[in-house]
């Protein structure tokens, strides 16, 4: 009885899949609406100066930030579905997720880009008054740590190969 309950409980992950997918859709829609509003505003008030380019650049970078976060949430939704429910989703080969390490690698890759874009937005807004070095060093340390984690994750696995858990239990 407990075995059937535990086996069926994996479908509770569908809540996380649906929540992640919904959050991704919301961010994608919000970002798209923001870009359309920016384009309309630019068409109505066509002032093309370097002074006006900075806020426009920052707004575009912030929308890219939203799109990247939406991508993270989408990858989480796909990854959780593939790991816990079934791997029958039609996805690109580079998006196939067979282990939690696969999901981590994909997420870390997007997080690295997200941090770089966030720092870029800060640099574009920077007026020279604050010291930008601590922020750059902080983000650099995070990027270094994430890169180190990526270098330690084994992505050369085969689903048929037993993992450390199976080997420790004597399963084959």
TrEMBL record:
Highest taxon, organism lineage: Bacteria
InterPro entries: UPF0114 (IPR005134)
Membrane-traversing stretches: 12-36, 56-84, 105-126, 132-150
Keywords from the named record: Membrane, Transmembrane, Transmembrane helix
Keyword Transmembrane in annotation: yes
Any Pfam family: UPF0114
The protein's name in its UniProt record: YqhA family protein
């Amino acid at each position: 009885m407990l075995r059937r309950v535990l086996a069926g409980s994996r479908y509770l992950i569908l809540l996380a899949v649906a929540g992640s997918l919904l959050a991704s859709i919301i961010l994608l829609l919000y970002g798209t609406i923001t870009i359309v509003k920016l384009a309309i505003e630019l068409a109505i008030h066509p002032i093309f100066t370097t002074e006006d380019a900075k806020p426009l650049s920052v707004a575009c970078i912030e929308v890219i930030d939203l799109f990247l976060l939406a991508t993270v949430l989408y990858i989480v939704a796909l990854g959780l579905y593939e790991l816990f429910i079934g791997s029958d989703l039609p996805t690109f080969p580079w998006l196939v997720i067979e282990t939690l390490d696969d999901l981590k690698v994909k997420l870390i890759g997007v997080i690295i880009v997200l941090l770089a874009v966030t720092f870029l937005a800060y640099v574009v807004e920077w007026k020279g008054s604050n010291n930008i070095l601590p922020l750059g060093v902080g983000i650099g340390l995070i990027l270094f740590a994430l890169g180190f984690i990526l270098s330690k994750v084994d992505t050369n696995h085969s689903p048929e190969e037993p993992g450390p858990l199976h080997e420790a239990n004597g399963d084959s």
